[in-house]
Structure to design on (404 residues):
């Protein structure tokens, strides 16, 4: 497997520039007072939308690292296999519309802007557009549910960079919706799809004890994993990133059992696995790899595997290539019956859950009244000092958190 997303921009200058939004100035972990935000800012990773976009897009992803186009072509073939189009932009268009429809249904009159880190529409242009329309209090929603440098802090850095580069840092404020890994709206679609897969396999005559459930997420360097989440809490060797995935996966499996969603009542074996690693082989990343585990399952008397894209909101490239192509091929070679379950996408429960999070932040709901499904939540509105450090790049200006 090969992916370049997790190491983006790691070799850029490490100078720390003072920067903090008004919301983070007090250092309080949760919003203290209701806020009438002017607009919602949907922040995405971005992706190419044609063959001619692929290499320029990958140059953006790896800017500052000096990677030659020849190396980029090794990853480009994943995109070229699908016509040079990543589905991530179209997903965000659909998600933006679905959230807008739900906001309208609830009578919440705020527009939604959409901007990306690595491809058009770029965040800088989106922030300028919002400011030109008079919208200066923006509530950011990053399209990633978990805590790590590339899934949370880097989006906060994106917000700060967009404000500074557009000379809007003194007039536009960007706060950020909390990480929502254990929010009901995010988890419920997984409970539903895993339950469907297990019922299908048992109806085919495969006993639950012969099924394995692999909850897959993007691997990250182990150094980054250890530093994910706030520095004043011990989440174990994998940091908050691994702990959050483990907690959500455990909740899903317990729900399937307690709600009677497993047809014969038996709980299949399960674990969290990782995919899409990149970087030098000498650099440790989170393991085990999803394909490696699939290849080992027949030795453990498994007949079938359910592959759950737990770390992903939608069917973008890492899901379509690393799971639908490589992981399914590994299952076929291992002689296993395999099902890859759905991502939340624009599932109605997820869309409602996103708007619940928007409303929660606007109303400054007290943390004890916020919905969450694991003991780790609800996560913070304002990221804590030292949260999700990238030691190769150092601390950079970041919105919606306590500096650094």
């Amino acid at each position: 497997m090969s992916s370049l997303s997790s190491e983006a921009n790691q070799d850029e200058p490490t100078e720390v520039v003072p920067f903090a939004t008004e919301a983070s100035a007090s250092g309080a972990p949760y919003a203290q007072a209701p806020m009438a935000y002017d607009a919602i800012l949907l922040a995405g990773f971005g992706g190419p939308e044609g063959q001619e976009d692929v290499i320029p897009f990958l140059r953006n992803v790896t800017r500052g690292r000096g990677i030659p186009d020849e190396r980029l072509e090794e990853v480009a073939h994943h995109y070229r296999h699908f016509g040079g189009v990543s589905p991530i932009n179209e997903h965000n268009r659909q998600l933006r519309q679905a959230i807008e429809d739900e906001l309208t249904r609830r009578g919440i009159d705020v527009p939604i802007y959409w901007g990306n880190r690595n491809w058009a529409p770029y965040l800088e242009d989106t922030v300028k557009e919002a400011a030109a329309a008079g919208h200066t209090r923006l509530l950011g929603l990053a399209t990633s549910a978990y805590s790590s440098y590339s899934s949370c802090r880097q989006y906060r850095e994106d917000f700060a960079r967009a404000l500074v580069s557009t000379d809007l840092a003194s007039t536009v404020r960007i706060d950020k919706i909390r990480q929502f890994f254990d929010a009901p709206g995010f988890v419920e679609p997984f409970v539903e799809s895993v339950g469907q897969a297990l019922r299908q396999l048992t109806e085919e005559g495969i006993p639950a004890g012969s099924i394995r459930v692999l909850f897959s997420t993007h691997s990250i360097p182990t150094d980054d994993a250890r530093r994910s989440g706030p520095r004043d809490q011990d989440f174990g060797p994998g940091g908050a990133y691994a702990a959050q995935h483990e907690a959500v996966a455990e909740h899903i499996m317990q729900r399937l059992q307690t709600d009677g969603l497993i047809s014969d009542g038996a709980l299949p074996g399960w674990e969290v696995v990782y995919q899409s690693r990149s970087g030098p082989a000498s650099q440790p990343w989170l393991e085990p790899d999803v394909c490696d585990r699939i290849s080992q399952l027949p030795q453990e008397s498994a007949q079938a595997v359910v592959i759950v894209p737990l770390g992903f909101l939608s069917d973008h490239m890492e899901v379509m290539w690393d799971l639908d192509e490589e992981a399914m091929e590994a299952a076929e070679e291992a002689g296993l019956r395999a099902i890859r379950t759905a991502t939340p996408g624009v599932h109605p429960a997820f869309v409602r859950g996103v708007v619940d999070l928007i409303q929660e932040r606007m109303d400054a709901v007290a943390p004890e009244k916020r919905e969450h499904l694991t003991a780790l939540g609800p996560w913070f509105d304002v990221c804590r000092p030292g949260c999700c450090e990238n030691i190769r790049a150092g601390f950079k200006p970041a919105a919606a958190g306590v500096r650094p």
Summary: Residues 60 and 212 are 38 Å apart (CA to CA). The beta strands are 39-44, 112-116, 137-142, 173-176, 211-218, 269-275, 304-308, 337-340. Confidence is low (pLDDT under 50) at residues 5-18.
